[in-house]
Amino acid sequence: MKHDKLIEQLTASAQPVQVIRSPLKPTILTFILVALALSLSLAAFGPTVYWYHVESVWFKLELLGGGGAAFASLWLAINSALPGRKPEIFAFPLFLASLGIFMGSLAINSWSHHQSDFLVGIDHWQCVAPTVLLASLGAVLTRWAVLRLAPVNPRAVHFFSSTFVILLAGSLVTLCCPATGFVHLLLWHYSPVLLAWVLGNYSGRAMLRW
Hints:
There is one protein chain. The protein has 8 helices and no strands. By secondary structure, the protein is mostly helical. It has one domain. This is DUF1109 domain-containing protein.
C-alpha cells in the first residue's frame, strides 16, 4: 500500500482531542512571512522594478488575482493539514475566482500591449533563475509551516502549497520583468517552477522506493 493511501486510511476517522480554531489566522501570518522573505530575497538580486506595469489596471488585476489565488491556495493547504477540519466555505470559491481574474487579466494585459513574446529584446533566461530560486525558498518555508501540523491529507496539502509557491514567486518576478506577453510569462516565469516541482516530486518518490 502506498504511503499516502495508508495515511488516509489510518486517519479517516481521526478526530481532534480539542476544538481546532480556524486556519485563517495562521494562513495570514504564513502568507505575510513567506511573501516578505521572497521579496527581500528578490531585492538581493538588485532588479529593476518596472513601475509602469503597475499603472495598468489589468496588471493590477493580474497581481490581485495572482495574490488572491496564492492566498486561497495556502488557506486550503493549511486547512487540509488539520485533522477534523471541514472544508472552508469561502476558500475554494476564492481560489477559483482569483485564478479566473488572474488568467483573464494576464491575457488582456498581454494583448493590450501588443507585445511580442519572443522579440522584446530581453534575455528570457534571466527570468528563470530568480523565479526558481524564489520558489525553492518559498517551498522550504511553506513546507515547514504546513508539515509541522502533521497533515493527514498529504495530497491536498502538497498540491495547494505548491500552487501557492508557484503563483507567489511568478507574480513577484513579473514586477521586475519588462515583458508582459502571455507566452513569455507562461514559459519563462511559471513553467520552470512547475517543471521543477514535477521533477522533484517524482524523482523524490523514485529515490524513496529505490
